[in-house]
């Protein structure tokens, strides 16, 4: 699976959009980009995934660059409950390998 | 959506005893489940892949005789930590692949809520 690079931490004001970047320059053609988050002492929660097109669901939007070497997870209106570690994972139909993720802190 | 139920959520055991953790897929069949371990302030590390009806595949460095995995049915996988020691204290998390398909219809993986194991 391709390796991903994420900033270790980010801050966001409550109510503002949170944009979390992820670099995956070695992604191959059949690999998907997945985003999960983990709130302290809980199991990871699925957020969204995509192959090459931008995706949106009730939780977030995923923007994938045309060359697929990077992506951005967008939480349109961050709340305090969105404080968590966000993991960007690139994988084909195999296991999920977790990196260190980005610790997003949403403040009032 | 798909739900993976993991029990117990926490357990304290004495050194030298064994502990069993259960992971159930509630509304779908999971032919493959995954077991992770997470130490404080670290990321999740894959321990093993559990396949229904066959032997589990362990990651390098994980002792298969210490961490026994049984996946006897399409909805249940268990992890038994045998002869537990304080260094086995960790957060154990299971996961199941929840959908098979092609293209963007591959929905990924659902995780249990985790088990906090403390060995004293």
Task: Please supply descriptive tags for the structure shown above.
heterodimer, A: 108 residues, mainly beta, 4-stranded antiparallel sheet, 0% helix, B: 120 residues, 7-stranded mixed sheet, 11 strands, globular
Concise description?
The complex is a heterodimer of chains A (108) and B (120). With 108 residues, chain A is an all-beta fold. Chain A is built from no helices and 9 strands.
List the helices and strands and how they pair.
The complex is a heterodimer of chains A (108) and B (120).
Chain A: E1 9-13, E2 18-23, E3 32-38, E4 45-50, E5 55-56, E6 61-64, E7 70-75, E8 84-91, E9 102-107
Parallel strand pairs in A: 1-9
Antiparallel strand pairs in A: 2-7, 3-4, 3-8, 5-6, 6-7, 8-9
Chain B: E1 4-7, E2 10-13, E3 19-25, E4 32-38, E5 45-51, E6 57-58, E7 67-73, E8 76-81, E9 90-97, E10 109-111, E11 115-119
Parallel strand pairs in B: 2-11
Antiparallel strand pairs in B: 1-3, 3-8, 4-5, 4-9, 5-6, 7-8, 9-10, 9-11
Task: Please explain how this structure is put together.
The complex is a heterodimer of chains A (108) and B (120). With 108 residues, chain A is an all-beta fold. Chain A has strands at residues 9-13, 18-23, 32-38, 45-50, 55-56, 61-64, 70-75, 84-91, 102-107. Chain A has no helices and nine strands. In chain A, 36% of the residues are buried. The mean pLDDT of chain A is 94. Chain B has 120 residues and is mainly beta. The termini of chain B are far apart. Chain B contains no helices and eleven strands. In chain B, strands 2, 4, 5, 6, 9, 10 and 11 form a seven-stranded mixed β-sheet that branches. A four-stranded antiparallel β-sheet of chain B has the order 1-3-8-7, with no helix packed on it. Classes of the chains: A mainly beta (108), B mainly beta (120). The A-B interface holds A 32, 34, 36, 38, 41-46, 49-51, 53, 55, 87, 93, 95-101 and B 4, 6, 34, 36, 43-46, 49, 91, 93, 95, 103-104, 106-114, 116.
